[in-house]
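Ligand-bound model needed. flavin-adenine dinucleotide.
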Amino acid sequence: MLQPRQDTVQAPSFADLTTMGVGGQIESFLCPTDRVGLIEAVEGADAQGQPLCVIGGGSNILAADEAFSGLVVRDARREINVLDEAAPVEGQDRSVHVAATAGTHWDDLVNYCVRMGLSGIEGLSGIPGTVGASVVQNIGAYGQEVGQSVDTVEVWDRQLKVVQELNARQMSFGYRTSALKATMYRAPGVPGVEFFPTPRYIVLSVTLVLRHSHTSRVDSDQLAQALQVETGNLMPIEQIRDAVLAIRARKGMLEDPGRYQLSWMKGTRETSNIQAATEALHMSVIQQSGGTTECDIRTNRHSCGSFFMNPVLDQKKAAQLPPQAPQYQVLYQGRPSGTVKTSAAWLIDHAGFHKGFHLENSMAALSSVHTLALTNRGGATAQHVYDLARTIQDGVEKTFGIRIIPEPVVIAQR
Ligand SMILES: Cc1cc2nc3c(=O)[nH]c(=O)nc-3n(C[C@H](O)[C@H](O)[C@H](O)COP(=O)(O)OP(=O)(O)OC[C@H]3O[C@@H](n4cnc5c(N)ncnc54)[C@H](O)[C@@H]3O)c2cc1C
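Prediction:
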């Protein structure tokens, strides 16, 4: 069944559907409410050779100002199921499988799991977007990545026109990438022709394997510091979630809960969680006198989170970095991979682009609280954001010889 929100009223624009709040008018928009409807919508567009964009929360898309002459599909299903027969028993430390449909809000799932005493994704609290997109770019934060907890991903294969179940190995998760994302690009940051801006594989549902445990290891120094414990310590997962949300609020890395009041976003997130997110954001302002202000939250609320990925360099390139630049050994299957990750935020800052930086006559600016976030200050166009991104990329390349690559899906930039 497809919701009757199609073609009878004017479709929304990308500005209505994305956290960046920019982007042109969409030709057709469908919100299928069941699995068959979702596949039919995708299959119908592909059969007609119509441009297709499957969108989730729109929190990782920078869409062009020009109209999109194609179909945008948003999965309206928001279902979470604990698959194992026996309900989790407190005090036990065992695996529990949890399945969620692609359209489920990611943080609704995290909140649900933390409340159930299921650990494994609490460090990913507060990341905007949907379950479906979470596995496309292998979301990560504070020492966790979703790929570590994925059991299987059910997908519609647009090429073979079949439903498939991919296991974690087949998903080839890496730093902000997966086998699904790889189908969209010819080279890092260079869109492919056949499957862009949406991968060959459409995520229908994701099954996670979590531990039934009220505690989890703190695997990030920043998080450990916030919790006042050593990295590697075990802490209650509720406390980890609260600490992550507080750090995110301070850095402007929580989405604006107010967007769920807007007509095109209504019903895409659990109402009680919108309320809780609004209160948490408000509390963070009260608790941080001299820190984040209501004004910071308002000015920085339209972004895609971190706009650039941290560059992963070979040893030769890494040796050319200034000695003060952060460097982390990248591990592959627990062993050093011979590559080094550096910090995009450090490179941007040391290339002269500081918090709040903007071009003349532009409403796009670096966040006032986070160097890595490009923000729409209200009234920005996609071109403003794109010009800012390009200026920063060029500046970093000129200073350090490294081309930083956008994390969001950048549709039809000039
Ligand atoms: C304030 C803020 C903070 C953020 N913090 C983080 C962070 O800490 N870590 C992190 O990793 N990311 C972060 N992000 C980025 C973003 O939240 C994630 O990438 C998220 O997974 C995007 O989900 P979405 O549903 O909004 O995807 P969208 O933006 O809607 O889509 C992104 C891509 O996924 C594809 N897609 C969407 N649904 C499906 C599906 N069902 N099947 C196949 N493809 C699909 C789209 O076609 C598109 O190519 C942040 C963003 C914001 C705004």
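Residues 127 and 215 are 20 Å apart (CA to CA).
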